[in-house]
Amino acid sequence: MENNLPKATHQHTRTHNRRLIFRTIFDHDRISRADVARATGLTRTTVSQVVDNLIRRKMVKEVGTGSSTGGKSPILLSVPSNARQLIGVDLGSPEFRGAIVNLRGEIQYSLTMPLDGQQGTAALERAFNLIDALKAHATSPLLGIGVGVPGVIDPTKGSSVHWAVNLSWLDLPIRALLKKRYRLPIYVANDAHAAVLAESFFGNCKNLNLIVVKVESGVSAGIFANGELWKGDGFGAGEIGHVTVVENGPLCNCGHRGCLEAVIRKDALVQRVRLAAQNDAGRLRERVRNWNALSFDDIVWAWHANDPATTTVVCETAQFLGSALANLVGAWNINHIVLAGPLKGFGERFLQEIRKTMSSHALAHLVEDTQIEYSTLGAEIVILGASALLLDEVFGM
Fold it and tell me: At which of 63, 78, 93 does a domain end?
């Protein structure tokens, strides 16, 4: 039977070998050429040729000698953290965020740019302004730009934004626009998908099946299973923010009523507490004189101060989220869930409320085996995830 599978070209082989060798050196603090050859199964000649090329490009450097086993001491190799820098951008927050990141995920320079409610073309221009400012602060050659964007990202259409509800972006060819403007490798992912990549690459959840739920200006989940990001058949896996949790509830930006996002995203939660607390004589009234100035930080304070109205609303929020997470656990049976975003301010008691709801909405033994925790990566989680996406696409990390 004739084999119709495409044969690997010499260029494919060279690219594979270069990525494999670079990744092997990257994964070790210091390693000799001989040990790289042993670890990769490649010949010493191939390793030497690739390493020499990487050294000329300043991607790898020689960092001294190792101990000898009887012959000449081996020269050790290492990847300098700042051999290349990346631009990571988060366009899924109330303010656009970006950073210059080195190859080890260390942030070298960060910048935020208020969105001020801008949508459509104006919001896109803000994104350009952010990247322009970041690019000016790069101190090493740029590997490329990784972008986390809310909504459904369609890779079959050049990583265009099929629909980003809160930015009013519909079929926006964002990758093509960025590539034309910056002439660098550009990689785009849904912001929650980027967040789960960050946890898998830079966080405490390496080599785990994992769900990351990001709650901020929107609500969505990233699912990492069997070593791969699960995007779904229509690339919208994890769009739990637009699943109805309150019949005839508040109007969502997507046009439906009672979506999870419409009741638990950051500004929606502030609005719900404002309505509940105005006629309440609790602790929050002592802190806030002007209800229009009520902030999320005020709500976190009131929750920890056991303000009655705030406690009711935040517990209800935990129930809405717990119900959604129970559905994820029932569908995926993934035992590790990480919450990313400002809800972390509510602490362990909030997680306990989520667990109680999950226990009553899914099989008990599935919930018992599920660990829920807050992300340790902070506000930069999507930036780091976009950087991880770029490293994976370029080096197969």
Answer: 78
Q: Within the chain, what is the greatest distance between any pair of CA atoms? A: 83
Do 319 and 217 fall into the same domain?
yes
Residue-wise pLDDT for 13-59, tens only, equals 888 899 999 999 998 889 999 999 999 999 999 999 999 999 999 99
The pTM assigned to this predicted structure is: 0.86
Instruction: Sheet containing 371-374: give its strands across.
Output: 228-230, 219-225, 210-215, 336-340, 371-374
Predicted pLDDT at 392: 86
What six digits make up the tokens of 153?
């990202």
**∠298-291-220 over CA atoms, to 5°?**
55
> CA angle at residue 72 from 68 to 76, to 5 degrees?
70
User: 235-274 pLDDT, tens per residue?
Assistant: 888 899 999 999 999 999 888 999 999 999 999 999 999 9
CA 163 – CA 179 distance, rounded (Å):
20
Domain extent for 50: 11-78
- Tokens 């390793």: give the residue: 47
Cα–Cα distance, 135 to 109 (Å, whole number): 10
Q: Is residue 240 part of a domain?
A: yes
Helical pair 381-395 and 191-201, crossing angle rounded to 10 deg: 70
Residue 8 is predicted with a pLDDT of 59
Does some domain include residue 242?
Answer: yes
In the chain, how many domains are there?
3
Domain shared by 105 and 183, yes or no: yes
How much is the pLDDT for 2?
45
Residues 17 and 123 occupy one common structural domain? no
The distance from CA 179 to its chain's CA centroid, rounded to whole angstroms, is 21
Question: What DSSP character marks residue 238?
Answer: T
**Beta bridge partners of residue 372, listed in sequence order:** 337
